[in-house]
Design a protein that fits this description.
- With about 425 residues, the protein is of the alpha/beta class.
- The chain folds into three domains: about 20-95 and about 115-220, Nitrogenase molybdenum iron protein domain (Rossmann fold), CATH 3.40.50; about 225-370, 3-Layer(aba) Sandwich (Rossmann fold); about 385-420, no CATH class.
- The protein is built from 16 helices and 14 strands.
- It has helices spanning about 20-35, 40-50, 60-70, 75-95, 135-145, 160-170, 180-190, 205-215, 240-250, 265-280, 285-295, 305-315, 325-330, 345-350, 390-405, 410-420; strands at about 5-10, 100-105, 110-115, 120-125, 150-155, 175, 200, 220, 230-235, 255-260, 295-300, 320, 340, 380-385.
- It has a six-stranded mixed beta sheet with strand order 1-11-10-9-12-13. Strands 6-5-4-7-8 form a five-stranded parallel beta sheet, with helices on both faces.
- Helix 5 (about 135-145) links the parallel strand 4 (about 120-125) and strand 5.
- The longest helix has 23 residues, at about 75-95.
């Protein structure tokens, strides 16, 4: 590893070459069969991959209500707290998206409308732990955006509270279908599952590959890799807090990337010691410890400029700022999925309930995109209209340009309107 102005106290293990050919073939088979055989193929793959034999995929209205009523009081209250915060933030974001119409030339009017996607499919992962916030993050912004119909799919063995969360978040229909077969069902439609216009939500490698293969006729939010957390810190960083935050994210998956970039070599060494100390008592050390050994990174920057440059190069999914003036420092950072400014802003708050979305870009894709948000569920569609003044202003240039390009049909279409006005 090399990067200008950076040395490593702990470097991540080299990335092993992975052969995805088998994964791609398996997913392609799933997609092809679900597309041609519908529910029968979904049932077959659910039995094969999830060991589930369901007489019906869809969760009935009465079952949904029963699962909500079965939630303990605090779990329901906490879920509704998260829903309210995510909704409040999404509503504020949507308010920033406004219709537009301007007169760019006398008589030539251009504009756009904000149009919700008609039907969205939300994939809600089961995962190693019941992530009760997962349905909130994908379904609530869709409802705020004004999507006509919101479909939710989650694995058959998902925790009952996850199904209840889908209901409370506002899903119109909920299906117990997981994996690539869920993506296929939502992309192509079956006898039971309606075809959607866009699929959102994270999942395992099979879900990710299925989203990649169906993209085009159906939209997707992004292709998500393993979770990531990085922290940029100066000498004011707290080693115990930094280690705690790194391990909190590391417990998601053995492939989670965790890193610290600091200008303080003593802090870097202290964090390594603190991580090893905390792993001895962490209940999820079997996962977090593997992630730390394989993916953990502690980098020392020669100065603030090098720290910022390396952080922007990494473009982490979650980026925490622990510096003397974190709000001023944050303005100098460009590439991140979501930014956590100051020691009080822990990733865990965003993961669960504070209101920003936890479905974020990974694998350095934060260099060109942000995360899931209310804008992911709408289209900004342009329009134009011209009166006679507008035609006179625009048509001559369009005629000349079309002629120079050799596009006679274009030239005629532009000239016809001008000729009729003059006649």
């Amino acid at each position: 590893m090399s990067f200008p102005g950076i040395t490593w106290v702990k470097a991540p293990a080299p990335e092993a070459e992975t052969d995805t050919a088998d994964l791609q073939r398996t997913v392609a088979e799933v997609l092809a069969r679900v597309r041609s055989e519908g529910d029968a193929a979904v049932a077959d793959f659910s039995h094969r991959f999830d060991k589930a034999d369901l007489s019906a995929f869809e969760v009935t209205r009465s079952e949904r209500e029963s699962l909500v009523n079965a939630l303990d009081h605090q779990t329901r209250a906490d879920t509704e707290f998260a829903i309210a915060n995510v909704r409040r933030f999404a509503e504020a974001q949507l308010a920033c998206l406004q219709p537009l119409e301007i007169e760019v030339l006398p008589g030539a009017f251009l504009g756009h409308r904000i149009i919700p996607v008609e039907r969205v499919g939300c994939y809600v992962p089961g995962g190693r732990f019941p992530l009760l916030s997962a349905p909130v993050m994908t379904i609530v912004p869709a409802r705020v955006a004004g999507v006509d119909e919101v479909i939710a799919c989650l694995p058959p063995n998902a925790h009952p509270a996850m199904v209840a969360g889908c209901h409370l978040s506002g899903a119109d229909r909920i299906f117990r279908i997981g994996g690539a077969q869920a993506v296929a069902a939502m992309a192509y439609g079956t006898e039971t599952v309606p075809a959607v216009d866009k699929i959102v939500g994270p999942g395992n490698a099979f879900v990710n590959e299925a989203k990649r293969q169906v993209f085009g006729p159906v939209g997707i939010d992004q292709l998500a890799g393993p979770s990531e957390i990085y922290v940029v810190a100066d000498q004011t960083g707290d080693a115990e807090m930094l280690a705690t935050d790194l391990l909190a994210q590391a417990e998601h998956d053995v492939r989670t990337r965790v890193g610290l970039i600091t200008t303080d070599a003593k802090l870097a060494e202290a964090v390594v010691v603190e991580v090893e100390k905390q792993l001895k008592t962490l209940a999820t050390a079997a996962v977090a410890g593997v992630a730390w050994v394989a993916k953990g990174e502690i980098a020392v920057a020669a100065d603030e400029a090098a720290m910022i440059a390396y952080s922007d190069h990494i473009a982490a999914e979650h980026l925490q700022v622990h510096t003397a003036d974190p709000r001023a420092f944050a303005l100098r950072l460009r590439n991140y999925g979501s930014l956590f400014v100051g020691q009080n802003a822990s990733v865990v708050y965003s993961d669960k309930c504070v209101g920003t979305n936890h479905t974020l870009p990974t694998m350095a894709s934060a260099r060109y995109t942000g995360g899931l948000w209310v804008g992911s569920y709408v289209k900004v569609a342009t329009h134009q209209w011209l009166d006679d003044r507008g035609v006179r202003a625009v048509a001559p240039a369009a005629v000349r340009q079309s002629a120079s390009e050799g596009l006679d049909g274009h030239r005629r279409a532009a000239q016809l309107r001008l000729d009729r006005m003059q006649g």
